[in-house]
Amino acid sequence: MRVGVVVNAYHPDVGGVETHVRRLAAGLVAAGDEVEVLTQHAVAAEEWLDGVLVRRFPLTVRAADYRFSLAHWQWMRAHAGRYDLLHAHSYHALAALPAALTNRTPLVFTPHYHGTGHSRLRAVLHPIYRPIGRRIVARSSRIICVTRAERDLVVRHFPAAGERIVVIPNGTDPAPGAGTALEAGPAAGDGHRILCVGRLERYKRVDRILRALTHLDDDHRLDVVGTGPARPELENLARRLGLAERVTFHGRLTDHAFAAAIAGASAAVSASAHEAFGMAVADAIAAGIPAVASFIPAHRELAVLAGSGVKLWLVNPDDEVALAGALRRAVGTDRTENAESPLPSWADVVASTRQVYASVAPRVRLVQQPLAGFRGGGRGRSDGQSNAGVPN
After folding, report:
1. Which of 133, 320, 369, 377 could be bridged to 212 by S-S, CB 3.0 to 4.6 A?
2. How far apart are CA 175 and CA 173, in angstroms?
3. How far is the CA of 185 from the CAs of 148, 227, 241, in angstroms?
């Protein structure tokens, strides 16, 4: 099967959508499919990553809120027919629009939908953008949501989409241990290390985590992994709160350094106000790290999916004292070592997604390659059989 994966940004850019698409694309290649990622970037480029051909089209509009590439649009109009199907990602970016409007190739859409914008400008533009989003949703043969909570939100705003939605939870990707020292930070054994991973946007509410840290002893340290527009103000806040020596903003980490961050973490935290799934929390659970997360629908559903034995505390991040208390309990709880993750693996996600593809392009015959060498998955099933799909 030849699949064109359409996404606003791609590795090495950091974010939940970028991680989702990279793991899915690599898994599709491991299963025997031919995959091209069609994305936007500051400069044009073509390269191979994980067996995937990545085509980066130069940006025409570089606005942070709604980037746009005319070259990407032109490529989709001229070349979409070379793919058996297109799989577009993210309602909250314009990249999916040319996949929906410029061709008749079968389309699968994963919206990663939050229901609102992530900045003041995006929140204002979101209702105005909805007719465009409605066109993408209407054009899609299948819509993949990563939680029931996301599905319910999509159906609330786009009722006609209900019968075309399938829920496939994200896989987990716990990085293997690769050392004990973090790049640009103290040794992993120096105090209790709390790990916060994600794109640095205001809606991630990392500021609440910083304020909660002031209620914890000085041996509690925070490692912030990720980039984004909120980083300067978060660094300023850390200095104002007297936390400069206890908080390290790592930006992007290499795979080896991120594995070290996982290996050295006593706990993980996400205070996000909006998530379609909550990948950072899921990866912490899969790695056996006690986690603290905001009490939002996606995180509540993730807790149910993980089961009763999961070491996860759900709190209201606006209550910094309660958040600090949950973090104190988490770092005081032993990690779960060498346990099988209760969450789906990326191999599960790939298998379920390929079944969706087959339903959209029925003339395409699925050829299943062994996935034993695919390392995009977690510690769950890796035999190519699917237990990730959740019925509606």
Report:
1. 320
2. 6
3. 38, 16, 19
Q: What is the per-residue DSSP string for 39-95? A: EEESS-EEEEETTEEEEEEEPSB--SSS-B-HHHHHHHHHHGGGSSEEEEE-TTSTT
Residue owning tokens 């008749």: 104
| Residues 57/69, Cβ–Cβ less than 8 Å | yes
The CATH homologous superfamily for domain 192-331 is: Glycogen Phosphorylase B; (3.40.50.2000)
What CATH number belongs to 2-171+345-360? 3.40.50.2000
Model pLDDT for residues 109-133, shown as the tens digit of each residue: 999 998 765 555 555 555 666 788 8
Domain extents for the chain? 2-171+345-360, 192-331
312 token code pair: 């996860």
Q: For 265-295, what is each residue's pLDDT tens digit? A: 999 999 999 888 988 999 999 899 999 999 9
Q: How far apart are CA 375 and CA 177, in angstroms?
A: 14
Determine contact, residues 3/34, Cβ cutoff 8 Å. Answer: yes
pTM to 2 decimal places = 0.79
Same fold, 2-171+345-360 and 192-331: yes
The angle formed by the CA atoms of residues 277, 282 and 284, to the nearest 5 degrees, is 145
- Position 364 scores a pLDDT of 59
Beta-strand pair 52-58/45-49: antiparallel
